[in-house]
């Protein structure tokens, strides 16, 4: 009788207190864990959960105890230290454990938005003009206003709100100071491309394919409002930005724009060494795309984000969940690494 493959669903235990501005985005992972667990269990896999907080020793102990054939990686980084997302992927790589999602090197690159933008620029991929600043001491702005100021090493739109967009030097220095003080240096300063906001998801089924493109539909411009996907627009249910930002999951594109987006997305996916799935964000002005960033291991909630792109392509969240496990099992692991000793331990 064939032994059931054992899958460990690995995730970050929430660490932020209720009322913290990032509490909602961090806690969503718990719902994702239950959705993935249910799909895998129903498909006949032997499934276990492994939640990890600040102690990497607990991760190693849990993996040693569970002895998985594959890890379903939902670890998004601790709310108190987001670089831990890369650390965990690196540890899984080091152990030789097959796991779902992007590898260590991709996560490290993507977590530094300014570094990826230099790579995009070097490869001829269109990205808005930008620079980085460690201090708020600019005497001139080298790119065109309006600009948007973001933490260079955060995701989920952390630190992005309406005040992120500035139109003069004084406001720019004030926002750089705010970002550096609250999120650490550097601050990424980027020309705001006023136009359409598109999100593309690429998945491996196992061949690479581009899913139908999502367009964010912003309300009509009003004084003091900028059409951007802020943290509030993504996460803060009940806020005016959340309630007035809508989405079309099959954006209408000209044939020329569709070709440009497809080529750009595929090139960026391969450039950063992504695998399984990734999301790319674009702004479009005059039918010309500008690549903002690549997000490895995008939000895996069964009712939003990537799931909506899958639905538009006729793929269920459950079907793709199983495909990710098949991809990881097909990649396998190197039995000369500590994974072999982990399975033989005890």
Key words describing this protein structure:
Dna Ligase, domain 1, 38% helix, 3 domains, six-stranded antiparallel β-sheet, D-amino Acid Aminotransferase, Chain A, domain 1
Structure commentary:
By secondary structure, the protein is of the alpha+beta class. The chain has twelve helices and 13 strands. The protein folds into three domains: about 5-100 and about 320-345, Rossmann fold; about 125-190, Dna Ligase, domain 1 (2-Layer Sandwich), CATH 3.30.1490; about 195-315, D-amino Acid Aminotransferase, Chain A, domain 1. Helix content is about 40%, strand content about 20%. Helix 3 runs antiparallel to helix 4 (about 105-110).
Order of helices and strands: EHEHEHHHEEEHEEEEHHEHEEHHH
Residue-averaged pLDDT, rounded? 89
- What does the largest sheet look like? 6 strands, antiparallel
Task: Give the name of the CATH superfamily of the largest domain.
Answer: ATP-grasp fold, B domain
| Chain oligomer state | single chain
Radius of gyration: 21 Å
Number of helices: 12
Quick one: CATH class of the largest domain? Alpha Beta
Tertiary shape: globular
CATH fold annotation of the largest domain: D-amino Acid Aminotransferase, Chain A, domain 1
